[in-house]
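Extended Data, panel c. Modelled sequence:
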Amino acid sequence: MTQRLDYMQQSPELFRKFVDFSALVKAGSIEESICDLVAIRASQMNGCGFCLDMHVKQAKIDGERELRIHHLAAWRESTLFIPRERAALAWTEVLTSLPDQGVPDEIYERVRTQLSEKELSDLTFAVVTINAWNRINVGFKTVPGAYDKAFGLDKARLE
């Protein structure tokens, strides 16, 4: 696969601002482990190889267990996720796929039993952010692993 263009070079100011925005989202009220799971799951759904590769490596660096990463695609059937993580994953999926009828009240109410209003708001921004990154990287065919050294992802020791 050949990358179509280097959006970081073509739009450096927008790229820097979006990186800054992403850092603000990451510093929000949602724990790092859930942010990692959300980024991986949305990237799986969107078929973004670059982001999937990046966030699996980041999750590994952050201490996530490999089996949980493997179970993400089947999180509903897995016993490895706690209710708070399940709520975050359900919210991620519904916002990533956006059903024609919108977000069902049942999913919203289930998520609200696990997250405060602030946490739900911060989680929503996390989902929006990874979906935007997915669209950028899918659109320009960013090569998975291409920036590992620059982003410190080589420390994951995944090959």
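The first helix runs from residue 7 to 10. This feature is highlighted in the accompanying rendering.
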